Amino acid sequence: MSDDIRTPYFVGEKLFIMLKGKAPKESICLTTEQVLPNDTNPLNTLFGGRLMQWMDITAGIAAHRHCGRVCVTASVNHVSFDQPVKLGDVVTLQGKVSRAFNTSIEVFVDVWVESPTGGGKKKCNEAILTFVAVDQLGSPLHVPPVIPESEEEKGRFDGALRRRQLALILAGRMKAEDATELKALFLK
Ligand SMILES: CC(C)(COP(=O)(O)OP(=O)(O)OC[C@H]1O[C@@H](n2cnc3c(N)ncnc32)[C@H](O)[C@@H]1OP(=O)(O)O)[C@@H](O)C(=O)NCCC(=O)NCCS
User: How far is the CA of 132 from the centre of ligand 1 (A)?
Assistant: First the structure.
């Protein structure tokens, strides 16, 4: 038996085996793109759909690196477009896993923009996505836990349960009365 195999546990009728945890830095994905004419809207700024595509790919690679499995996007929990990105700007995206549950993995994507005329990198966008590891038939597979290290990673890890409950309620997969984390947040 491999030394990364831990205690078996049940979720409903499904049997899972606890895998060895991994730190977010082990699966980080960095992507750099330059905004070209084909990426822009009529205002000559980056088209939001193109940025979402880059975010999805960057986050999906981080999820894949974390679990070593094919990962599909289950939900986009949050995207913010804080400022327009101009034609010619260089965009850097960082995908970093924040927490894993049984078969799902939450990934943060932080985006920075850099103008070719100087001024350094500025944070411009952020997204949070959830992926599910699947086998060749699309059935979910269990994933290793995430072990947060930095203060930011710990904060994102703690908030992930709240975001998961909200996503599952919006998807009609959880009843509001079962959302313990949300109740604690709103009904103090
Ligand atoms: C995501 C998918 C694999 C889930 O399959 P399923 O049969 O519903 O599986 P389950 O009910 O066992 O859920 C699996 C996990 O997905 C999570 N999940 C499902 N829907 C979710 C949602 N909307 N938001 C967040 N998590 C979700 C569940 O919480 C569960 O996580 P856990 O195992 O860590 O607790 C399936 O819905 C799918 O293949 N969707 C299409 C994915 C795709 O094609 N994406 C590309 C976009 S076009």
Answer: 6
